[in-house]
Specification:
Length: 310
């Protein structure tokens, strides 16, 4: 499969890093809340991990969880996401790359389950969920942005509930609940994970994918210059181990996990490995500021599946 070419202008940059968004950074600062304890263990002892402008990711010294702390109120996040969907549709190259990645994710979860009732939490415009055939799946979505939800319903015939999943009641129980590139965006991801587990049928699966790995080697090397560290929208950086620690309390156990890299449309192993070697040398020389940016690298993105066992 041919990989789309990369762009070098601002359209290839993370939403939070585009220079035109300086006004957005200034506006959102008004919604910044107070520092909170670690969402995993409740500790208040942290080390600084990465910082962009006024947002700082801190690593818990007790359990290793990394979160942007403090972050914005719910009102501030609503302000951020009011134009987020429209922005993401402007970049055609990124859309092509994501379309390939959707199929890769779907085919991986198909190794374990191929039909049933599926709920995609944070479904955006329904692009990922559209890869699940309506002949085999009853498809449902939850999305906080109304124009994205309308797109999913109008273009793909997907039933989408608009709002915060924590405030929505479901009559259904699901064979598969998915969070693709979503769990890192929630202010209270632990409550979201608990809700997702409650929505599973006995023996149902929870699929979390395309979420940045907080324990990844690339995050250790690049810190604030890691392309997945976009602190306006990415609040929490889990590991499979920490996710499993949370989910085990809700009767959900890890079945399998994977770190996609070479099969994705983003990877260029010879080029990526050469650059990270050069960048590690800069880190060792304490010249991290000379690093121009990160590269895709193995271990950076979590793909994992848990099963409801009790």
């Amino acid at each position: 499969m041919r990989k789309p070419e990369q762009l070098s202008d601002t359209k290839s940059m993370p939403y939070s890093s585009v220079p035109e968004n300086k006004a957005l950074w200034k506006k959102l600062r008004l919604y910044l809340e107070k520092e909170y304890p670690c969402i995993i263990c409740g500790s208040n002892k942290f080390e600084s991990w990465a910082k962009e402008i006024y947002l700082e990711a801190k690593r818990c010294l007790k359990c290793g969880m990394i979160s942007v702390n403090p972050h914005f109120s719910e009102e501030g996040l609503n302000e951020l996401y009011s134009e987020y969907f429209a922005y993401r549709q402007d970049d055609l190259i990124k859309k092509q790359q994501r379309d390939i990645a959707y199929l890769i994710d779907r085919d991986w979860v198909y190794l374990f389950i191929r039909e049933g009732k599926v709920l995609d939490v944070g479904c955006s415009g329904g692009f990922f969920l559209s890869k699940f055939s309506p002949e085999n799946w009853d498809r449902f979505g939850v999305e906080i942005v109304s124009d994205a939800a309308e797109y999913a319903m109008s273009n793909f015939g997907i039933s989408v509930r608009v709002g915060n999943i924590l405030e929505i009641d479901f009559a259904e129980r699901f064979d598969l609940v998915m969070l693709r590139g979503a769990i890192e965006h929630f202010r209270d991801p632990i409550s979201v994970l608990e809700k997702c587990c409650k929505l599973l049928k006995p023996g149902g699966y929870l699929f979390i994918t395309a979420t940045p790995a907080g324990d990844s080697f690339a995050f250790e090397v690049y810190r604030r210059k890691w392309s997945l560290f976009t602190p306006l929208e990415h609040i929490h950086f889990f590991s499979v181990k920490l996710l499993s620690k949370v989910l085990n309390d809700y009767g959900v156990s890890l079945i399998s996990h994977h770190y996609q890299y070479e099969e994705t449309p983003y990877a260029n192993p010879p080029q990526d490995y050469k650059k990270i070697q050069q960048d590690i040398a800069l880190v060792m020389q304490e010249d991290r500021d000379k690093i121009t940016g990160s590269v895709p690298f193995p271990g950076s993105m979590i793909t994992a599946l848990w099963k409801k066992t009790s």
